[in-house]
Amino acid sequence: MDFEFTAEQVAIRDTIRELVQDRVAPRAAEIDAKSEYPKDIEKLFAENGILGIPFPEEYGGISGSSVTICMGIEEIAKACASSSLILAVQALGSYPILVAGSEEQKKRLCPPLASGEKVAAYALSEPGSGSDAAAMKTRAKRYGNEYVLSGTKQFITHGSIAGTLVVFAETEPGSDHRGISAFVLEREASPWTVSKIEHKLGIRGSPTAQIVLEEVKVPVANRLGEEGAGFKLALAVLDRSRPGIGAQALGIAEGAFDYALNYVKERQQFGQPIASFQGIQFMLADIATQIEASRHLVFLAATKVDAKAPDLTRTAAMAKLFASDMAMRVTTDCVQLLGGYGYISDYPVERMMRDAKITQIYEGTNQIQRVVIARSLLR
Q1: How far apart are CA 150 and CA 214, in angstroms?
Q2: Using CB atoms within 10 A as the burial measure, which of 169, 232, 282, 340 is most buried?
Q3: Using 50, 70 and 90 to split pLDDT, how confident is the model at 175?
């Protein structure tokens, strides 16, 4: 591909690739079947510096580059989408601190996340507030040097296991998006309640929680930016995290295609490998082309995150939209290439098809991505 990776990035990628092949891939089917969060994989990633990728060195990390984050997510997602979220959500939950945090906040809050001592999560969505994020009902009232937060957050990835939770809440009710502020909750000092863990179609090894905040006290020192700046921050974070979802979708598609490609070379019908039939060859050509196009768009978006490019919003939305739609098509085709075997859980492609679906939904549905892209074109 055309993107120039540094020697350090290639070394990180190769390390992750080896760990994934040795330790993650053999666990992927079991993680999905048991719907259990793979604490052993989290520990493996922490010990090998993978959870430090989202953070610059001055805050205890090893990179801070979106390109490097996307490379890591892609490699892990080839084998296990649930495990790729350990890195992806560590980045998502940390971006608000890295984007809007003061120097004191970054130095205090980032090192435990970079070392893997703590897991981060990001709490924006609510039962009645998904695509319309500004319609949130969670409230934050200030009393002296602390805020008291009350409300319910929905579909919070890793909300049940996180030690650090970024929460968006209204500090000025009735002010639409201009009254939303962002807060960092540290579980020991500002505990939240997990009221439900969702049972899901895919990414079953990644806990998705409903969180209840019952008059949770948060120090003013843990507010990110000024009051009322939270909604703008939430959008800025999604611009940075969407390429990572594109990378996850890319990895899922690549993993399914690698398996299907090997299968069609070996599967015999009518006295020859099914890969010798033109109908199959055309499917393979279309899949490979879609994957390659997605790879370029995802890493273009990642380079724009690192460069703080002015057209990041549009490119990030395009990358997430295109790669996730691609992953759904490709994994569906890979199930088809395996025929009846593709439909049973002895083979990984049905899991990958189920996992691919969420990439079209979270961090902004693909309908919302199209709205974002169109607005930027018409502005």
Answers
A1: 5
A2: 169
A3: confident
On the question of pLDDT at 2 being above 80, the answer is no
Question: What pLDDT sits at residue 351?
Answer: 98
241 with 205: CB under 8 angstroms?
A: no
Give the Cα separation of 116 and 95 in Å (integer).
15
Task: For residues 268 and 253, give the distance between their C-alpha atoms in angstroms, rounded to a whole number.
Answer: 24
- pLDDT above 90 covers what percent of the chain? 98
Q: Show the tokens assigned to 192.
A: 């939240």
Strand partners, 120: 164
pLDDT in tens, 182-218: 999 999 999 999 999 999 999 999 999 999 999 999 9
Q: What is the DSSP letter of 126?
A: B
How far is it, in rounded angstroms, from Cα 169 to Cα 182? Answer: 6
- Examine the pLDDT at 257 and tell me if it is beyond 90: yes
Catalytic pick among 42, 74, 350, 363 = 363
For residues 359 and 253, what is the distance between their CA atoms, to the nearest angstrom?
11
Helix segments in 119-270, DSSP class H: 230-266
Q: What share of the chain is helix, strand, coil (3-state, %, to 5)?
A: 60, 15, 25
Q: Cβ(324)–Cβ(245) under 8 Å?
A: yes
Please tell me the distance from the alpha carbon of residue 319 to that of residue 274, in angstroms, as a whole number. 33
Identify the pLDDT of residue 173: 87
Cβ proximity of 181 and 228 under 8 Å: yes
Dig out the tokens for 364 from the structure. 């902004």
Q: Bin 141: left if φ > 0, else alpha if -120 < ψ < 50, else beta.
A: beta
- Contact (Cβ atoms closer than 8 angstroms) between residue 60 and residue 108: no
CA separation for the pair 186, 198 (Å, rounded): 23
- Ramachandran angles phi, psi of 196, nearest 5°: -165, 140
Residue 176 confidence (pLDDT)? 84
